[in-house]
Amino acid sequence: MASNGSGRGGGKEELRTFVVYDIPEDKLRNRIADVCQDYGLERIQYSAFVGKLGSNRREELYLKLQKLVGQKPGKVMVMALCEKDVKGIREILNVEEGGKAAETRERGKAD
């Protein structure tokens, strides 16, 4: 979906944006999650979010996270993927029920 630079996406083209982080401090980790949710990103793991953002919003998010982390220990990665790369994502999802895997689903295909 393209954007004209105004509105939620910002920038010309919205790309799937992943934010992945490893932050030892609970309070800071929770604040990073809040910021990601404020930008409309969806939590996909405990310390990983994904959603579509235009380049302006992605840069704004990066700068906000950079300021938030400051000099505190940790690592934050903000990655944008084009649709071609998104189609290459492979996922194995094991859903647990009653202590054992009840369902296994795989998304994506081998190259």
Overview of the structural elements:
The protein is of the alpha+beta class. The protein has one domain (15-107): 2-Layer Sandwich (Alpha-Beta Plaits), CATH 3.30.70. It contains 3 helices and 6 strands; from the N terminus they run βαββαβαββ. It has helices spanning 26-38, 55-69, 83-87, and strands at 15-22, 42-45, 48-53, 75-81, 91-97, 100-107. The strands form 2 sheets. The protein has a 4-stranded antiparallel sheet with strand order 2-3-1-4. A two-stranded antiparallel sheet has the order 5-6. A hairpin with a 2-residue loop joins strand 2 and strand 3 (48-53). Helix 1 runs antiparallel to helix 2. The model is unreliable at 1-7 (pLDDT under 50).
What's the SSE blueprint?
Layout: E1 15-22, H1 26-38, E2 42-45, E3 48-53, H2 55-69, E4 75-81, H3 83-87, E5 91-97, E6 100-107
Antiparallel strand pairs: 1-3, 1-4, 2-3, 5-6
Helix pairs in contact: 1-2
Radius of gyration: 16 Å
Alpha plus pi helix count: 3
Morphology: flat
CATH class: Alpha Beta
- CATH topology label: Alpha-Beta Plaits
Report how far the terminal alpha carbons are from each other. 26 Å
Average pLDDT reading: 85
The overall number of domains is 1
Number of strands: 6
| Fraction of helical residues | 25-40%
Seen as an oligomer or otherwise, the chain set is: single chain
